[in-house]
Amino acid sequence: MRVTKDLVAAxxxxxxxxxxxEGESYxxxxxxxxxxxxxxxxxxxxxxxxxxLHRLERLGHVESSWQSVTGERRRKYYxxxxxxxxxxxxxxxxxxxxxxxxxxxxxxxxxWTLPAIPLEGRA
Amino acid sequence: xxxxxxxxxxxxxxxxxxxxxxxRPELRKSDTEELEDHLRGSVEELTSVGLRxxxxxxxxxxxxxxxxxxxxxxxxxxxxxxxxQLVLTGETEGAVxxxxxxxxxxxxxICAAGAAISVKVPALFGLSFEHDGAxxxxxISLFAFPWLAAFLAWRRQAAxxxxxxxxxxFALGAVAANAYPIxxxxxxxxxxxxxxxxxxWFVVGLAYVADDVRSSRRRMDFIRFTGEWFVYLALMAAxxxxxxxxVFGTFKAIGIVPEDAMAQWLLPCGGVAAxxxxxxxxxxxQSVVENMAPVLARLxxxxxxxxxxxxxxxxxxxxxGLDIEREALILFDLLLAVVLGLLLYSLSARxxxxxxxxxxxLQLVLVVSALVIDVLVLFExxxxxxxxxTTPNKAAALGENVILLANLAWxxxxxxxxxxxxxxFAALERWQTGYLPVYAVWAWIVALVFPPLFSYx
Lengths: 123, 457
Known about the structure:
The complex is a heterodimer.
Chain A: H1 5-10, H2 12-20, E1 25-26, H3 27-38, H4 46-59, E2 62-68, E3 74-80, H5 82-108
Antiparallel strand pairs in A: 1-3, 2-3
Helix pairs in contact in A: 2-5
Chain B: H1 3-22, H2 29-48, H3 53-64, H4 67-77, H5 95-118, H6 121-124, H7 133-156, H8 160-178, H9 187-208, H10 216-253, H11 259-285, H12 292-318, H13 328-348, H14 358-388, H15 392-419, H16 425-448, H17 450-453
Helix pairs in contact in B: 1-2, 2-3, 5-7, 5-11, 7-8, 7-9, 7-11, 8-9, 9-16, 10-11, 10-16, 12-13, 12-14, 13-14, 13-15, 14-15, 15-16
């Protein structure tokens, strides 16, 4: 089961902000973390991640700094800012609303318990 | 294969990849670096699970996906990057280019300041920009062009001999402007005032082609430079006009009329400084912004061709004779100059290897109709001159007409040959660039020889 592109895009901002709220990180590590968190189900590409990071930086939700790693290599680290934390809180509120509403409607219609829905993937 | 070989091969692959990615305008150098770090992370992980370095590289690049998709995503966030910007200071990406452009900027500021100061030096001797129009009218180019030439010569690291020649020519220009007893209201004042800047502009051209004076390509570059410089100067003049209007308006509102400050300082100093700044802008933006002069030439070539044809048809239809006014000769000189400009700037932007197309035929129509009109006019004018005698004005205008006519006639022949695929395009280019000294020599003759020749009339 792969998550659709639209849903990945919609959840991209809270995902990145959430990961950065755990501590500063860089592009490759963020992508690895998303992969681990979703068990490989979320199909993130570099074309989604880096422009998103740049946009969040432009909006002031994250800030970046170049740090040197081994040898001559430099790595761009991103850190969440105050406004980023506020944005994350707002996004969480909205996502909770959506998820709660979906859960309720699925519970009411009884589909939550239908065996037809394969849940093994999550187990 | 040793691990060291493996590592070297990997570095080579990364270098190749970088080169490939850096060609994308959407991706800045910092983006490339960030993506490379990502790629290296990916490669490290893959080699740690047992892949060979080159295999790991291939897999990592494949995972990153097509560069087209990637740059499209970057373009969505950074749409401003598709609008090429001329960076004025700092923030350039390569360190070497950065110092180079900063040094250019520094030299430009010195030259512009020098021009602005030099234009005020005559004020020490009691000459004012407002009231000594005759002096400034003759000399204004001497306050601006040497500085622009100095900037260009510095940039090209011109040879000492060439610098000496340019200094001598500027000195000669100063003599032409000031040594002759030219009356304020005389015709010679006007002809010198027009021709001396043209003559001195070719000295600037000498500085421009300093690295290779005889090269036809460099001369064509100077023609391009002239067009762009003029466009920039016109834009700056428009901006200066807006600035002036606001200074007047705002200061007037608090009861101060800054007329003196404007006429004595802003106008002369800003004007000569703008000449240098425009030259610097053209040099700095060369490859950054699309050239404007060829675009204008493309737009107006069909329109001018149409107007000239319509004129010829109307002339033939009505059968009325040409009523040549006093200014007519100058008007038709300007017309020829415009047609030549259209031809030159279309040439300057043309791919020399492309085969002739409809636009080249249109150009032929334009040039031929301009020639026909001019021959009619010339016929009329020569009659007048033989009848009433000549003046500096008429002689200068007539000379220009003949020079332009000769150029355009031969150009028409070459364009015809090119359209019929008989002559190569390069012949046309060589003809135009080889002709440049003719204009220069004529401008110098009018400025230097005409006043004594016509006894300072």
